[in-house]
Design brief:
- The complex is a heterodimer.
- By secondary structure, chain A is an alpha/beta fold.
- Chain A folds into two domains: about 1-40 and about 170-365, no CATH class; about 50-150, abc type-2 transporter like domain (abc type-2 transporter like fold), CATH 3.40.1710.
- In chain A, about 65% of the residues lie in helices and about 10% in strands.
- Chain A has helices spanning about 1-15, 20-40, 60-70, 85-90, 105-110, 125-150, 175-195, 195-205, 205-210, 215-245, 255-280, 280-300, 310-315, 320-335, 345-365; strands at about 50-55, 75-80, 95-100, 115-120, 160-165.
- Chain A has a four-stranded mixed β-sheet, with helices on both faces.
- In chain A, helix 7 (about 175-195) packs antiparallel against helix 14, helix 11 packs antiparallel against helix 14 (about 320-335) and helix 14 packs antiparallel against helix 15 (about 345-365).
- Chain B has a four-stranded mixed β-sheet with strand order 2-1-3-4, with helices on both faces.
- In chain B, helix 3 (about 65-75) links the parallel strand 1 and strand 2 (about 80-85).
- In chain B, helix 7 (about 175-205) packs parallel to helix 10.
- Chain B starts with a helix and ends with a helix.
- Chains A and B meet through helix 2, strand 4, helix 6, strand 5 and helix 7 of A and helix 2, helix 5, strand 4, helix 6 and strand 5 of B.
């Protein structure tokens, strides 16, 4: 029996890897996407284009402007002499922030009135807008504190000392690149197994497989293991690239990481096989794979936090294996978490994997009538 | 186009229409898929942190500490939880029960009275760097509000010499849904457009019906047109449904004109369908066409279009790569048309880029189709 399963695995691997186009699709794009996405997917702001309208050119306003220009976050596009172009620059997306320093700026500073500084932000991308506001506020309050200190104003009773645990520079690449491990592993695994049964159904070879002495569990192994092998292989390449190319710290051990990885690939394989055996045609299988893949990525916490979703959508994500693996891969990379701390993430994936594989095996037989 | 060609085209169109009608999967891709995805994502995708669980550690309670911590209870952004020691709070953060810690050390009140600048420790979990930055921003707001409230209560001068007056254009409430939903439409329509054509034509190749068509008198142009027109109509129908959901269900404002939206959507749909035609012409079988469609449509449209990740923040080389993603231009147009209005200096260059993309894809699709005839 083992020989037969092995033969089936070899046949499946050949089916995927023999076709030059299919081989290219499995190996080329994921690696290219890793590189491009690893650099592209960032929430960190750099070179935000800024215009400044300083109505009170003075020593104090020059100091404030210098603080903005000295920050790597901002990049000066225009010093305005009149308010006319403010709307135009923002509307046309030439700048994302306009800083307007009021005419009374120095006078108010010296007389103890709150000196108004307008911060106008393009809100079309609300996340960027919030972050720009945050950066601008930090610069403004730093200016406030140091101006107050040098001009004999009473110090505020308390100041904030901010620190970030696990990711001290708050680099979003440390967050996204481990996420890409999960993202691409899922896509590659689905590509391998998602259409495999449907394709054989359409050509009729699956019925031939069913009349051999192989049991459904053997066919399941033969169909599933190639996905597992290719998925694990690609994931390992991506993990290596995350560590050595993108310099994301891998603080935890390989055991908690690979335990999660194996469970994740099994769960995705199970779901892929289930979709594939449920479908009558390749077209349906592809549609099914898409219908699973797209929501599972968008609702996984890869880019937008699960905690921000409404409760019913949060409940829906409990069925999504990627949700658990993302927590595992990020915790192992950045927090150095061990197997015990991640137990709550392992078992749901194991349950999803077991249930979907069982369903796929049952559907193998069920469909032949 | 002479009368014979027109008649042949109508014949082909009728055949496509019948095929679509009998196999509901094309209708499902055009109408059900975008509606379902937009519904789930429109509710699910949000970058607005609300009710962030945060640990408050006050080592020596007092009036000053109480006035500060009460600001957290009042803030809509935080759900504060009290901890007695910093170790307990750290433990809670490690188990992800809280996302940050605000720590008032035992000498907090003494140092505040002795000269001010008494340090308040703020520790956030930095794993999700974006979330962490937003939380830091909220903490800073709470702190500034607290200082202003104290200064007002004391009747003295302003707490801080500067008063920042933020003004967010186009989206004053800084609601991430208003900006994510237009982007989602572009991502979903990329999928729909490519799926509609990629699969359908690859299927004709695989089944040999394409060869059957080719031995008749119809030209390759007529075949492509007959494929393009029905799926264009279906795609635009799906688009209209998505816009209706965005406006009526999610309440995203539509500031620009509906005609600009329709015209630019048509351009984008041509580019997306052209890409699907190209994939199917290249792959020639459904298996590979499906694999290519998965890899080249969804992920690039998701990550490289500026839908969540700001293109301005990407490294120069990656910014150049984003120019080959049609969704990038459509996302820029949609965000402006929905939130800002008919800003021609944004719409025209991006629409022109869509024309070029559509031309390239359709031209290449035409090129690969011709080769087959020989």
């Amino acid at each position: 029996m083992i020989r037969q399963v092995l033969a089936l695995i070899v046949k499946e691997l050949l089916a995927v890897l023999r076709d030059a186009k299919s081989r290219m699709v499995l190996i080329g794009p994921p690696l290219i996407q890793l590189l491009v996405f690893g650099y592209a997917a960032t929430f960190d702001l750099n070179h935000v284009p800024v215009a400044i309208y300083d109505q009170d050119p003075s020593a104090a306003s020059r100091d404030l402007v210098a603080r903005f220009l000295g920050s790597p976050t901002f990049h000066l596009v225009a010093m305005l002499r009149s308010p006319h172009r403010i709307n135009e620059l923002i509307d046309q997306r030439q700048v994302q922030l306009v800083l307007v320093i009021d005419r009374r700026f120095t006078r108010d500073l010296l007389t103890g009135q709150p000196a108004p500084v307008q911060v106008i932000v393009d809100g079309r991308n609300s996340n960027t807008a919030l972050l720009i506001e945050g950066y601008a506020n930090t610069i403004l309050s730093d200016f406030s504190l140091s101006w107050g200190a040098t001009h004999g104003r009473p110090a505020p009773p308390a100041v904030l000392e901010m620190r970030a645990r696990y990711n001290p520079t708050l680099s979003s690449r440390w967050f996204i690149v481990p996420g890409i491990v999960a993202l691409l592993t899922q896509v590659v695994t689905l590509l391998v197994v998602g259409l495999s049964v449907a394709r054989e159904r359409e050509t009729g070879t699956f019925d031939q497989l069913l009349v051999t002495p192989m049991r459904p569990i053997d066919i399941l192994l033969g169909k599933g293991l190639p996905g597992l092998l290719i998925g694990l292989f690609e994931a390992s390449v991506i993990i290596a690239a995350a560590v050595w190319w993108f310099d994301v710290p891998l603080r935890g051990g390989l055991l908690p990481l690979y335990l999660g990885l194996v469970l994740f690939v099994i769960a995705v394989t199970g779901i892929g096989l289930m979709i594939s055996s449920l479908a009558g045609t390749q077209q349906q299988a592809l549609l099914g794979a898409f219908l699973f893949m797209v929501p599972s990525i968008i609702l996984s916490g890869f880019a937008t936090p699960i905690a921000n979703m409404p409760v019913w959508v949060q409940d829906l994500t409990l069925l999504n294996p990627m949700r658990y693996f993302l927590v595992i891969v990020r915790s192992v990379f950045l927090e150095g978490a061990g197997v015990n701390a991640l137990a709550a993430q392992y078992w749901p994936m194991a349950v999803i994997g077991a249930a979907s594989l069982a369903a796929a095996g049952w559907l193998f037989r069920k469909r032949v009538t | 186009m002479n009368a014979g060609a027109l008649r042949r085209l109508f014949g082909l169109l009728r055949k496509e229409a019948l095929q679509i009608w009998r196999d509901p999967s094309a209708l499902a891709i055009a109408f059900v898929l975008p509606a379902v995805l937009l519904l789930i994502f429109g509710y699910g995708v949000s970058l607005d942190a609300r009710n962030v669980p945060i640990a408050l550690v006050v080592q020596r309670p007092g009036a000053l500490a109480a006035s500060f911590t009460s600001q957290f209870a009042r803030s809509p952004f935080f759900r504060p939880r009290r901890f007695l020691t910093i170790q307990d709070a750290e433990q809670a953060m490690a188990s992800r029960a809280v996302q940050g810690i605000v720590w008032l050390p035992s000498d907090f009140a003494r140092r505040a009275a002795a000269g001010g600048n008494s340090p308040i420790g703020v520790i956030v979990n930095g794993v999700d760097a974006n979330d962490a930055r937003i939380i830091e921003g909220y903490v800073q707001q709470v702190w500034a509000t607290w200082l202003t409230a104290r200064a007002e209560a004391a009747g003295g001068s302003a707490a801080l010499p500067l008063s920042a007056q933020p003004q967010v254009r186009f989206n004053p409430a800084v609601d991430s849904r208003d900006y994510l939903v237009p982007g989602l439409i572009a991502v979903i329509m990329t999928l729909t457009g490519a799926l509609l054509t990629a699969l359908v034509i690859a299927r004709e190749w695989e089944r040999g019906t394409m060869e059957a068509l080719m031995v008749t008198r119809v030209t390759i142009n007529e075949i492509l047109l007959a494929k393009l027109i029905p799926y264009f109509v279906l795609g635009m129908g799906g688009m209209a449904g998505s816009v209706a959901i965005a406006v009526f269900l999610f309440g995203v404002p539509l500031q620009g004109s509906i005609w600009v939206l329709t015209a630019t959507s048509a351009l984008f749909m041509l580019a997306a369908l052209g890409m699907g035609l190209l994939i199917s012409g290249f792959a020639r079988n459904q298996f590979v066409a499906g694999q290519i469609a998965i890899i080249t449509t969804f992920l690039p449209a998701f990550i490289l279009s500026g839908f969540v990740f700001d293109i301005n923040s990407m490294p120069r080389a990656v910014q150049i790569i984003t120019h080959i993603v049609a969704a990038r231009y459509f996302v820029a147009i949609l965000q402006s048309v929905f939130l800002a209005g008919n800003v021609w200096s944004v719409i025209l260059p991006n629409a022109l880029a869509l024309v070029v993309m559509a031309g390239i894809f359709l031209g290449l699709a035409r090129g690969t189709a011709r080769k087959r005839l020989d």
